[in-house]
Design brief:
Layout (H helix, E strand, L loop, with lengths): L1 H16 L25 E6 L3 H11 L4 E7 L3 H11 L2 E3 L2 H5 L6 E4 L6 H10 L3 E4 L7 H14 L3 E3 L7 H11 L6 E8 L19 H5 L16 H4 L7 H4 L2 H10 L8 E8 L10 E9 L2 E7 L3 E6 L2 E6 L2 E5 L21 H11 L7 H20 L3 E4 L4 E2 L3 H5 L16
Parallel strand pairs: 1-2, 1-4, 2-3, 4-5, 5-6, 7-10
Antiparallel strand pairs: 7-11, 8-9, 8-14, 9-10, 11-12, 12-13, 14-15
Helix pairs in contact: 2-3, 5-6, 6-13, 7-11, 11-13
Length: about 425
């Protein structure tokens, strides 16, 4: 990323030197008027996946003066054209056209879940930083591969768990890590539930949709009217593990941010859930999970987005809507700068842009994204096998259950792979 920004700065220096031969007029906006960084210091961003949520992310990036949003890609023509109008950028049907552009420093990946890791890894190999929507991978294998590649190449990665850029979530997690409720012995996690339905009737592919590109690494299936839009793209097992990860990513991410319980010893997962037998949607819902994270007990059930940490001296509950605690005096406490352990951010996209441009740390790094997503996948595997699952966080594998261990991987439709050629 720094090389790319440095290269563009050198281009402008070269152009300035050429004024000896001909006058050069640089617009005031390019020089950083109105508080914006000069053009050669802005992070050039391409947006991949610009449906409803993708355009919301694009708006957030457009609030960042340090970003230049120059390109969008989506297999839906209507999506990419609408997003291109928003940012006055170039529209592409194939995300690889964005990755091939040398002027682009970073990508925001807001596709359906099954595309998150393959595109993020392709972006890393193309020399780009990546802001990746939650959840992370379609499998544990994808989570680990994505984490390892970004760490190996040293590119910036930001996970799209925007609650980390909310002040009350930051404070709650800092209070837990600072020991203000004593030793944490129980963690309760709630996330919105999934559901059933979806038409299985084959229908014509709409004009303006590159259906094969939308499917990408997922199995080839007949198009139906509910397949390529929410909630189908969230609740079909070919593309997702449902709200175990799709919504669970948020409160489980808070768990990881405030506690390292998932690294403290074997993770034991058991529980029940419902897998629909009719209709298009076939991911787990109505789940009721019981986990042991080392010595910490944990439950994970459907409900409003919430993570509650229970310690020997009180409890702290963190949700998108606010912070609660017992004793209530905890809500008035602060964390001194020298005691802070976490990255504080006021704007999730802005934090990513600063990390790319200035080398500052991100609020939601890839290592913790993988840890969060693995918890979701372990719950999914436990429900689908009907057995207790044991995960070793040191060797990063499922122990003593060959069938469950095989479920750490999911096949990809050719020619797509997680390798160089994918």
């Amino acid at each position: 990323m720094k090389t790319s920004l440095y290269s563009r700065r050198n281009v402008l220096k070269g152009l300035a030197a050429s004024t000896l031969a001909a006058p050069l007029v640089i617009p005031s906006r390019a020089l950083g008027a109105d508080g914006a960084p000069p053009a050669n210091e802005r992070v050039v961003v391409g947006h991949i996946g610009v449906g409803g949520r993708g355009r919301q992310e694009l708006r957030l990036f457009m609030q960042c003066q340090g970003a230049a949003n120059v390109a969008v890609a989506d297999p839906f023509k209507s999506h990419r054209e609408a997003a291109a109008r928003m940012c006055r950028g170039k529209a592409y049907a194939d995300f690889r056209d964005i990755l091939a552009r040398d002027d682009i420093d970073a990508v925001a990946v807001t596709t359906p879940d099954h595309w998150h890791v393959p595109i993020a890894m392709a972006a890393a190999r193309a020399g780009k930083a990546a802001f990746v929507a939650k959840p992370l991978g379609l499998s544990i294998e994808q989570d680990l591969a994505c984490r390892d590649l970004f760490n190996q190449l040293g590119h910036v990665f930001q996970y799209g768990t925007q609650q980390r850029s909310m002040a009350h979530c930051y404070l709650g997690c800092e209070l837990v890590r600072a020991g203000r409720i004593g030793r944490v012995h129980t963690i309760e996690v709630l996330a919105p539930d999934g559901g059933t339905g979806g038409s299985t009737q084959e229908a014509p592919v709409p004009e303006g949709l590159d259906y094969d590109m939308w499917l990408g690494p997922a199995p080839r299936r007949p198009y139906t009217v509910d397949r390529c839009k929410p909630p189908g793209s969230y609740w079909i097992y070919d593309y997702s593990i449902g709200y175990l990860a799709g919504w669970g990513a948020h409160p489980l991410d808070i768990l990881v941010w405030a506690s390292d319980a998932d690294l403290s010893g074997p993770v034991i997962v058991e529980g029940t859930g419902t897998i629909p037998k009719q209709g298009l949607y076939d991911t787990v819902f109505h789940w009721d999970m019981k986990l042991r994270l080392g010595e910490v007990k944990m439950t994970f059930k459907p409900g409003r987005d919430l993570t509650r940490f229970i310690g020997d001296e009180g409890w702290i509950a963190i949700s998108r809507g606010g912070l609660d605690a017992e004793p209530k005096s905890l809500l008035k406490e602060t964390i001194a700068p020298e005691q802070a352990r976490l990255v504080q951010s006021a704007h999730h996209a802005g934090n990513f842009v600063e990390a790319v441009r200035e080398g500052k740390p991100v609020a939601s790094p890839v290592d913790q994204a993988a840890r969060t997503d693995i918890l979701s996948h372990l719950c999914n595997i436990a429900v689908r096998t009907g057995r207790k699952i044991t995960w070793d966080p040191k060797t990063e594998t499922i122990l003593d259950d060959a069938e469950a261990a095989r479920m750490m991987r999911r096949p990809m439709r050719k020619p797509w792979t997680l390798g160089e050629e994918g």
